[in-house]
Amino acid sequence: MRLLVTGGAGFIGSNFVHQTVRERPDVQIIVLDALTYAGSEASLAPVHDAVDFRKGDITDVDLVDELVAQVDVVVHFAAESHNDNSLRDPWPFVQSNIIGTYTLLEAVRRHGTRFHHISTDEVYGDLELDDPAKFTPDTRYNPSSPYSSTKASSDLLVRAWTRSFGIHATISNCSNNYGPYQHVEKFIPRQITNLIDGVRPKLYGSGQNVRDWIHVEDHNSAVWAVIDRGRAGETYLIGADGEHTNKEVVEAILELSGHARDDYDLVSDRPGHDLRYAIDASKLRTELGWEPRYGSFRDGLAATVGWYRDNEAWWRPQKDETEARYEGLGR
Ligand code: NAD
Ligand code: DAU
Predict the structure, then answer these.
(1) pLDDT 10s digits, 249-258
(2) Atom of ligand 2 nearest to the CA of 274
(3) pLDDT for res 172
């Protein structure tokens, strides 16, 4: 199988490439990545010789066409991915997430290539904190932020290209990922690296917002389950029943880093901050037989704390610029 992985130098994409090289040596991989602030060739260093890396933009029609023509399957991770950035400047989100996905869809339509679209549970908006409900594939789209609305737009493009042009596509909507190679702008690595730098963790608002955490390797094994066994035109929700308040996560990181559990600061809230996400992954489990490998969030978090301690050379170049951006937002 020949695979084009867009966004393969980002957090989830690079972990997907590592896992694929390790577990499926017969798969040939081309990575297409623009190396924005969020992408880094260093994330692919351990698999450098096993991958054909192409620096380029998914909105580049000619380049996308040339690469799509060479593969059997496109796995589309590339996106602007951070909510806080989308509140400051939505334009790159419109460009990469909507126009970029459109460009890929047109190429797979021309070449008859199978397409798997990586998306997010944020397209469904949020749930009340005290509501036992979870997102299902039938939940109404109701995105809150510029980021999530551009991801919702890209999902709708994939659905329309499937129905109107008959392309062979699948979509997966996953909950919050954690693990190695995640940019330090994101919640968990920001707090781990703040503590390494002697800075107290920062919780937005009350810290009561809930996210449904899944280890990045579990997300990627589910993506492979969809590529292998998913039905064309279907949407699969990916999650591993990992709901925690942000306060609980920060307390766990503090404990794992040898600090008192209340050694954090509450800072101003994110505008429009989604309250709670929760995934019902029963379709993925029953139809495709997928199960997560990471049994315990606490163990996965401990391994992640260890990874950031051991890999300062990877994250240090991102840290000052990221914190300067947050200072501008007062968070
Ligand atoms: P990331 O920001 O770490 O990586 C994104 C990658 O895409 C970077 O390497 C970047 O250089 C590349 N990229 C961005 N715009 C590009 C363009 N125009 N052309 C080519 N490359 C471009 O993001 P991530 O957290 O790894 O997320 C990957 C995908 O998974 C995204 O589609 C995101 O919406 C989705 N997702 C993320 C999460 C999560 O918790 N992080 C959860 C569910 C879904
Ligand atoms: O649900 C999937 C989504 O998860 C993905 O689609 C996004 O790409 C990914 O970034 C993530 O979005 P969130 O906005 O949930 O992730 P973030 O890491 O930015 O924040 C997680 C929670 O932590 C959120 O409630 C905001 C809060 N937070 C974040 C930061 C950076 C803090 O309390 N303090 C912080 O310093």
Answers:
(1) 999 999 999 9
(2) 25
(3) 98
Whole-number Å distance between alpha carbons of 254 and 265: 12
Helices 246-256, 187-196: axis angle to 10 degrees equals 30
User: What would the CATH number be for the domain defined by 2-178+214-238?
Assistant: 3.40.50.720
Joined together, the tokens standing for residue 56 give 């380029």
Mean pLDDT of the chain: 98
Cβ–ligand 1 distance for 156 under 6 Å, the answer no
**Dist. CA 216 → ligand 2 center (Å):** 15
Answer whether 0.90 is exceeded by the pTM: yes
* Ligand in nearest proximity to the CA of 121: 2
DSSP string, 143-189: --SHHHHHHHHHHHHHHHHHHHH---EEEEEE--EESTT--TTSHHH
Residue 274 in contact with ligand 1 by CB distance below 6 A: no
Q: What ranges do the domains of the chain cover? A: 2-178+214-238
Structure tokens at 233: 């035109």
> For the chain, how far is it from start to end, CA to CA, in angstroms?
45
Amino acid, res. 258: G
| Structure confidence at residue 40 (pLDDT) | 97
Length of the chain: 331
Say if ligand 1 is within 6 A of residue 239 CB: no
- Choice from 121, 147, 149, 176 to test ligand 2 binding pocket (greatest atom count within 8 A of CB): 176
Atom of ligand 2 nearest to the CA of 122: 1
Q: Does the beta carbon of 152 lie inside 6 Å of ligand 1?
A: no
Q: How far is residue 194's CA from residue 253's CA, in Å, rounded to a whole number? A: 11
Give the residue from 93, 40, 88 showing the smallest Cα distance to 325: 88
152: how many CB neighbours lie within 10 A of its CB? 22
93 and 120 Cβ atoms separated by less than 8 Å = no
Q: Residues with catalytic annotation?
A: 121-122, 147
83 Cβ closer than 6 Å to some ligand 1 atom: no
Q: Which-ligand-closest: CA of 41?
A: 1
How far, in Å, from the CA of 259 to the mean position of ligand 1? 32
pLDDT at site 295: 82
Residue spans of the chain under pLDDT 70: none
